[in-house]
Amino acid sequence: MKIGYACLTTGLNQERYKTCIQKNATEETLTQLIAHNLEVLSLMLDYNIENQIMMFRISSDLIPFGSSPVNQLSWWELFSEELFALGEKVRKYGLRVSMHPGQYTVINSPDQGVVGRAFLDLEYHARVLDSMGLNSEHKLILHIGGVYQEREQATQRFMDSYNQLSPAVKRRLVIENDDKSYTIEEVLRIAFLKNIPVVYDNLHNQVLPSDTNKDDVFYIKEAAKTWKRQDGPQKMHYSQQNPSKRPGSHSRTIYIRQFYEFYQQLKTSIPEHELPDIMLEVKDKNLSARKCILALDQTPRIRNLEEEWALYKYKILEQSHAHYLKIRRLLKDKTSYPVLEFYEILEEAMDLELEETKSLGNFINSSEHIWGYYKKQVTEKERKEYLALLEAIQKATKKKESLRNFLLKLTEKYQDPYLLNSYFFWYQE
Q1: CA-CA to 342 of 20 to 30 Å: which in 107, 113, 248, 288?
Q2: Predicted pLDDT of residue 15
Q3: Calpha distance 273→259 (Å, rounded)
Q4: Do 173 and 109 share a domain, yes or no?
């Protein structure tokens, strides 16, 4: 069973995808942007491999204006070597990748212009995966679309449009239940009629349920029937509700106890070799993927939690000194593997909403700890700048981010390996 996340890494010191506005989309600019984005994707794959995150959704933004006539480049030829090299990396390390066209890619619209653009977008996404040389286990996920106050006709339009899709798209396409229009049972009916694999989304089913007497395991088993050998292992989407936002909004993080109980429910009902791959849909992306993977690790090592703690520790200290001390005590026993307790304390600390005065005190405490790594090697000018920023923040004449950014510059200048990827710098909501 693979666990993955969608599109972008968070909490890391690395480049992001770039794009441009339409009027600046010259061939030269697009060429530069595509080259940059492919390099970023390569770095993301490297991170995933290093952290044993074996499933990943590639962003639709990889190729700017990929399905638009604005982009006249034959990018799949221009970057054929780079794309194939990315595919080689995926194959070599056993990763599984996918893509998920956005909300405007709707093939059951009554507007043929919308449908035509959706077809072009699906072709673009399929071409990315084809150019990487990947087989049909690497999928494109699509929702059925809108109801348009005519559910039966809208469903039929989807099936008619599906019949017109190219073989390149059809061999990768999977369909998913959503939280507004089509329940899992409606999607399964279409799937069995048209022989399409189904991705089950647990949160969407909570918001728009088919039958509240049937649980996740029931629908996961039903969806499993739609997956054929050439489609690879079944996959599903897992997310948790953000309690402060509208129904269907993803949580900031995957709360580990809830996920662990969900996994145990699966494990007791489904043979291990048939467990679905799980794509996490969550705001903190790779951080939650890493968390879930370590929680289910079959060969647990306390060292893994210590490495996680090295990334989180100064961010947690900024949030709560009490939680910081609690985790330090928890990790003292080197013969244990208290993974659930470890992440529950992290989650509790990150969820704290602190009053500004207390928050500032915690921030200064964290900053002083980080400054301690450099105070013996900095220049006199840097020392004075640090003290001036510290005083300005205490007097509220500067914001604390000015000091955070200064400390980040020192970290990058002196290349301290312990701090370069610290979430003190990179985990900002």
Answers
A1: 248
A2: 79
A3: 19
A4: yes
69 and 20 in a single domain? The answer is yes
In this predicted model, what pLDDT tens digit does every residue of 387-415 receive, in sequence order? 999 999 998 899 989 999 999 999 999 98
Residues 181 and 279 reside in one and the same domain: yes
User: What is the amino acid identity at position 228?
Assistant: K
- Over residues 92-109, the pLDDT tens digits come to 999 999 999 988 999 999
C-alpha 19/C-alpha 36 separation (Å) is 10
Angle value at C-alpha 259, between 258 and 265, nearest 5 degrees: 95
> Is the predicted pLDDT of residue 70 greater than 60, yes or no?
yes
Round to whole Å and give the CA distance between 348 and 335: 24
Phi and psi (nearest 5°) for 199?
-95, 120
What is the Cα–Cα distance from 243 to 351, expressed in whole angstroms?
A: 12
| Whether residue 429 has pLDDT greater than 70 | no
Q: What's the CA gap between 156 and 223, in Å, rounded?
A: 21
Average pLDDT value for residue range 241-265: 95
Q: Are residues 291 and 320 in the same domain?
A: no
| Alpha-carbon Rg for the chain in angstroms | 24
CATH of the domain at 128: 3.20.20.150
Q: Which two tokens stand for residue 197?
A: 């694999």
Same domain, 284 and 332: no
Number of domains in the chain: 2
Select from 245, 267, 295 the last residue of a domain. 295
Looking at the fold, whether 379 and 232 belong to one and the same domain comes out as no
Same domain, 332 and 318: yes
Whether the per-residue pLDDT at 357 is higher than 60: the answer is no
Instruction: Tell me the C-alpha distance between 174 and 195, whole Å.
Output: 10
Supply the range of the domain harboring residue 413.
Answer: 301-429
Encoded tokens for 65: 């204006």
Residues 327 and 287 in one domain: no
Distance between CA atoms of residues 105 and 94, nearest Å: 29
